[in-house]
Amino acid sequence: MTDTRIRVSALTPRMDLGPREARHLHVLRLKVGDVLRVFDGQGAEAAAQIAQLEAGRAVLTLGEAVSGAAETPFPLTLAVALLKGDKLSDVVRAATELGVARVQLLVTARADAREIGAQKLLRLARVAEEASKQSRRAVVPQVLAPISLTEFAWEGQLFVAQPGSQGRIMPLLDWAAPVNVLTGPEGGLTSAEVGGLLERGAHAVTLGPRVLRAETAPVALLGAIAAFGQEDQPRPA
Amino acid sequence: MTDTRIRVSALTPRMDLGPREARHLHVLRLKVGDVLRVFDGQGAEAAAQIAQLEAGRAVLTLGEAVSGAAETPFPLTLAVALLKGDKLSDVVRAATELGVARVQLLVTARADAREIGAQKLLRLARVAEEASKQSRRAVVPQVLAPISLTEFAWEGQLFVAQPGSQGRIMPLLDWAAPVNVLTGPEGGLTSAEVGGLLERGAHAVTLGPRVLRAETAPVALLGAIAAFGQEDQPRPA
């Protein structure tokens, strides 16, 4: 099986590819009979064989399913305050590499913006798709349009990066349910915002005694989760 | 005491500041008698009082020492392969926020470059200085000119980020001695390079089952160390 991975709309017994994908296969010098991987961006991944390959189209036949070995046992969500400029792209890219299934944008009291343009949201979705491909994941994280902090609901655990907190993520992290992490804007969440989250059951955790930029905190916290590692735990049935 | 922090060449009973620093104090509307912090970039930090303040100069008198609360018990070193473009700046900036005392640049088999210009090295040093200030550290990390992997020697522990490794940093990390982390270039270290480091006592550790970019791996690994946190341990005498 080659390392090539092609995204398809769904894993079906016969998959018709358009001109762009067919050209991609040509560029990679693949031939009829070669085996590659297909994935649907929702976590399903399988082997597939090239049955036909012409200039403008190709047909693949489905092989055995491959488990999404690069995925966490339950979905991992990053909720992040709106940041200026290209910072959100950098965060989405790194978060995708570090295994998030979803990025929820948040409007907070001190966030750099109150909203995000449709074009920019689309661009973030493309960043997630590219990063997913590069990091060989079977899931393309969704990037969800901003909501307010009070609207943000979560399942499982929520860890809020909070400077000065005494909490540590390591002893608390439990992959028996979905895991969510939340990081604030430049200048941080207000104490009322943190208080509201803690009342709803969130855990405040520290990333050490230094002041981190808003775009470093999510990468550091997701890095800790990746390094701590419970991806090998049995998945829920 | 104000939040203002001024870098001085050394912490002495009387410190003479030049025009640039004096202007900075004026801009902040500080007055004679106000107390701020001074630090020497080597880890020493203290309170200081403004004794004289004129247009082009200022004199500070030294107050009580402030412990470097933002520092790890022993120095933390990042050894990182040369990367293209601005990636090294991004890594140095985030690594400074995450507490490194030193960034050692490395030439490895697959590194994007074999050397680095004097101007670029100077620029990285400036990035470290700015990031140190922003993250309110008393130490400005040194950025050391590239050496080969075989020349790289370390004290204490060395953790090498190695995709596919089964090792985890968490149970191994021990702040009873200096801690070093090493990350490779785009395309990774060769297995001979990793083998050589392991023979010399390094630990290979994983950051999860996904493929990380060369500029994400150091931030993720240093984030894990910061989140795990042993900064509160007693310092060596």
TrEMBL record, chains A, B:
Highest taxon, organism lineage: Bacteria
Enzyme class: transferase
Segments passing through the bilayer: none
GO-annotated molecular function: methyltransferase activity
Database matches in SUPFAM superfamilies: alpha/beta knot (SSF75217), PUA domain-like (SSF88697)
Record keyword Cell membrane present: no
Catalytic reaction equation(s): uridine(1498) in 16S rRNA + S-adenosyl-L-methionine = N(3)-methyluridine(1498) in 16S rRNA + S-adenosyl-L-homocysteine + H(+)
EC annotation from Swiss-Prot or TrEMBL: 2.1.1.193
Domain Ribosomal RNA small subunit methyltransferase E methyltransferase stretches: 71-225
Keyword Cytoplasm: yes
Identification of the protein by name: Ribosomal RNA small subunit methyltransferase E
Biological source species: Deinococcus aerolatus
